[in-house]
Design a protein that fits this description.
Layout: H1 18-26, H2 39-42, H3 55-58, H4 68-74, H5 77-88, H6 101-115
Organism: Ignelater luminosus
Protein name: Transposable element P transposase-like GTP-binding insertion domain-containing protein
Domain Transposable element P transposase-like GTP-binding insertion: 45-118
Length: 124
């Protein structure tokens, strides 16, 4: 057997721990099949960019709108990057304000960070 760069392959080494054994079975690794596609590139739709944001944060009811916890999650760096990624992938309508949203979310997140910080001693 020879690799794509011309070096002969003599062995495949794996400690066969639980995670690695499941992976090797899942991607059909064998003596005859020694390679597999990177799982992240073979299933791009399976990557969750904003994994910390769930439906609870997006469908806030009544007085929960006043809770800072929900606002900090909605206006977070993670959501800013997720919206930016959606724009890049063409998932946002080009006529909407989607192109401006990531920058607004980033500015709001930075504002939260500044006003939630404190200095233990004032410099003189």
């Amino acid at each position: 057997m020879e690799s794509s760069v011309g070096y002969p392959v003599y062995a495949i080494n794996c400690d066969l721990g639980g995670d690695r054994r499941g992976l090797s079975l899942g991607v059909n690794i064998s003596v005859d099949n020694t390679w597999f596609e990177n799982p992240h590139t073979s299933k791009p739709s399976g990557l969750n960019i904003a994994h910390k944001i769930n439906e609870t944060y997006l469908t806030v009811k009544s007085a929960e709108w006043q809770k800072v916890r929900f606002a900090t999650k909605r206006f977070s760096h993670t959501v800013s990057k997720a919206v930016s990624r959606m724009n890049f992938l063409g998932l946002c309508d080009s006529n909407s304000k989607g192109l401006e949203s990531p920058e607004f979310l980033k500015i709001t997140n930075d504002w939260f960070d500044i006003f939630n910080s404190k200095v233990s001693q004032i410099d003189s």
